[in-house]
Amino acid sequence: MDEEALLKQFAAQFAHGPDDADDTDAAAAAQGADSTANQVADDADQSPATFDTQQFLNGLDAIFDRHTAATEAGPYLEQAMVDAENAGDEAGLLTVLNETMGFYRSQGRHKENQWIVQRALELAARMGLTTGTSEAWATTLINCATAMRAAQQYDQAEDLYHQAQSVCRHSLAPTDRRLAALHNNLSMLYSETNRPDKAELELREALRIIEASSVNPDADIDVASSHTNLALTLLTEHKLEDAHWHAAKALEIYRTGHLEHSAHYASALAGFAQVCFAERRYADAVTGYRHALAVIEECYGKDTDYWRITADNLRQAEEAAAQAGVTVDNAGVAGDAGALPQSGSRLPNSPAQGKTGANSASSPSTVSASTGSAGAAEAVSACPVSGLKLARAFWTQMGKPMIAAKYPQYAGRIAAGLVGHGSECYGFDDAYSQDHDFGPRFCLWLTDEDYAAIGEQLEVDYEALPRKFSVDAQDRVTFEAHARSDASGAFPSAGAGSPVTPRAQGANRRDGVFRIGDFFESITGYHTAPAQTAPHEWLMLQESTLAAATNGEVFADPTGLFSKTRQGFKNMPDDVRLALISKRLGMIAQAGQYNLPRSLKRGDGAAAWLSIHEFVQATASLVFLVNVPMVVGYMPYYKWQFAALRKLSGSMFALLPNVGEQLETVMRLSSAACYGGAGFGEGSKGAAPAIEKINDIVEQIAVDIVKELKREHLTTSGETFLEWQRPYVEDHIASDDPVLKSL
To answer: Is 640 buried (19+), middle (13-18) or exposed (0-12) by CB count in 10 A?
Structure first.
């Protein structure tokens, strides 16, 4: 097993198991609901008048208690969804969806989880949870984020986790274990996206919360799980001494509390085995993995990712032991082996936080990152990290310490991040982006009251921050005392950035200090999002405008006010979304299915070209609307429209995933179709082959759209001329406001 194979993040998926703190308590999603009790119907044909949430949870617990989840939990959850929906119990249905997300994730059923995540978010929005700070909304956000993380949809997962953090600050007590679960899940995301330093910090905070909330930390299963998670993250940082201590501590807790028969004991065994492997204690590693497999098989069976990953790790440990000439007793398991720490055995002293073991890797050499107004080829050498990474490092290493030192009384009130205009805010910046308006920057967002008190001076201090830096192989940034040099906002020729264009200066500046309301008004024209009951205002906002107001990352938001305001713009009313879907269906039909072929028959290439443009725009927009902006964001302006569409289409959870590629094919063929003429186009056959291909693609897209509308129960019609689908979609608009209906 080589170094890379050794550090598989097996435990990042496994350390808390499929049914505990890795998912927050789904019962919280039903809090405040007035669900009446009635036994869940055993007969699938029976539709109960009411849904008993507690009875459902008890039944699910019983399935896990008798270790039959692999065969019984799936059908049980599916029937519960039907029963809750038939009973009209939205709170009960949300509870079932939260439990289903956790179970599907544990079984590796990520594709099926697509519908559950989307359905849960849509249901929460319909229940009015998304504009508040309820525990139900926090629970749903965390579970949706965890499902997305397990499916490796990291950008969406991180955004959902950050939304959850904002909600939890207001809805949970400081020692609530769900906060620890959130920190733990964030750590997993950071581990899986190669940010072990951040993962370690999140795990230490999770451990602190759990120990503070525990009656007996020395016999608490959640404390043990936190030690295992921390051990594995420290292992990725090559801090072997620290990793060994935490892994051994986890096993000691299980034995002190007599918790060895818990399903999660397997994670502690496998975690300790992984540390042993890194220490080249191959016999101990084999023993730990064997015992872990026995526990997994007993609790979950062999047909799970947990069993397969652990079995693969065992195989590699056995091979390494054989190559090293180490003999391992095939009959032995960890319970009676001297390899693992026993109850009462003495652990080494707890290592100091952040201490690096003797085998830790040496610091990598740095790469110079000073640049002026260099061209694209030079820029990529100058700054090898993305704009968002650069912004986060600039905030963490320079901005945050400056605020703590100069504005300590406001440190718990200032939000920071990078949102708005600029390719880096969308995560699409590259070498070519660095020739203008690029450099270390972030935004600071203040309330009106705080801005009046410190805004102007804080802006001066922000502008004075050093911007000359170096970036090492692990994306760590080191700054030197070199600030912006002139009033225009341009970086000095030796600084880390490129010239700032007029469109990013003055009132249009993209970084620095802002009032929260003014920041959003500068992008959207609104201090806060329009009311959910003001559809005409929502319809006046371009999707690209909403994309700019909701992109990027929030690095810190102690009060949650900025995130709440930003979330308001992301929470498009469903009636408005349906109205826009109807409008897009109309334009797809008009431009793509009707006017495009007629213009081509007339030989009017210009009209056909413009028809293709309208068709592509409407179809791309519809893909984002169908996937729900709250989940995937809004379609950005034209420059990044297809970059965003490709990213969305590549998601495991994407709806209409093939449409983006089909649209690009239409555009590639448009020149030959509109202006081909004799002797032009493929094989010198003129425009006809391109026209035929485009017409076929347009109709196939229409067929795919109708299938999706049917799946979402937005239509019962199979008509593929999409204009005729509009009344079916608009029947689902609850409001009577005429602005939402077509003429």
So the answer is: buried
* Paired strand residues for 554: 417
Give kind and range of the element (H or E) at residue 459: helix 448-463
Decide: pTM greater than 0.85. Answer: no
**Distance, CA of 714 to CA of 53 (rounded, Å):** 28
| Number of other residues whose CB lies within 10 A of the CB of residue 580 | 21
pLDDT in tens, 247-282: 999 998 888 888 777 778 888 899 999 999 998 888
* Rounded-to-integer distance, Cα 356 and Cα 339, Å: 24
Q: H helices within 588-687, ranges in order?
A: 596-602, 605-626, 629-632, 638-649, 659-675
Nearby residues of 261 by Cβ (< 8 Å), 6 or more positions away: none
- Complete edge-to-edge strand list for the sheet that includes strand 468-472: 366-368, 468-472, 477-480
CB atoms within 10 A of CB 697: 18
Cβ–Cβ < 8 Å for 357, 242: yes
Environment class of residue 635 by beta-carbon count within 10 Å: exposed (0-12), middle (13-18) or buried (19+)?
buried
Is-contact 12 192, C-beta < 8 A?
Answer: yes
Give the count of beta carbons closer than 10 Å to the beta carbon of residue 359: 12
- Determine the straight-line distance between the first and last CA of the chain, rounded to whole angstroms: 67
CA distances 142 to 9, 289, 564, Å, are 20, 30, 16
Distance of CA 266 to CAs 123, 142, 164, 291, 484, Å?
Answer: 35, 24, 29, 7, 54
The mean pLDDT of the chain is 79
CA distance 283 to 308: 20
CB 219 within 8 A of CB 257: yes
Asked if 698 and 592 count as a contact pair (C-beta separation under 8 A), the reply is yes
Spatial CA neighbour of 74 closest among 301, 268, 384: 301
Which residue type is seen at 104? Y
**Burial label, 404 (beta-carbon count in 10 A; 0-12, 13-18, 19+):** exposed
